[in-house]
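[step 3/7] fold_predict: job queued, chain A
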Amino acid sequence: VQLQASGGGLVQAGGSLRVSCAASGRTFSTYGMGWFRQAPGKEREFVAAISWSGLSTYDTDSVKGRFTISRDNAKNTVYLQMNDLKPEDTAVYYCAAEAGGRATPNLYEYEFWGQGTLVTVSS
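[step 4/7] structure written:
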């Protein structure tokens, strides 16, 4: 599966942004999907994940209550709605696909990665 992330940009602290990840291929609905981010000089970290059905989601503590992951299998797209953004959310955001269909925070379990989209939050 090929992944294309989009929707990044510059936003002020407290603002909102939605990033999207469009997938090619007919098997998108069987994949677990995840969002990760990487800030300059830091390692890539888990943000949120969603199971193939959308019934199971998992997000990291730092974004709980602010970010929401969702998916539309009819459109082969996964979304990350980001509210109340903070400067520390500034990073390149990557989407990834996991063939087991699970919502997992382990980046090593993801076989396919998109190219990333930059989110910059100004203070």
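[step 5/7] annotate
The chain has no helices and eleven strands.
The radius of gyration is 13 Å.
exit 0
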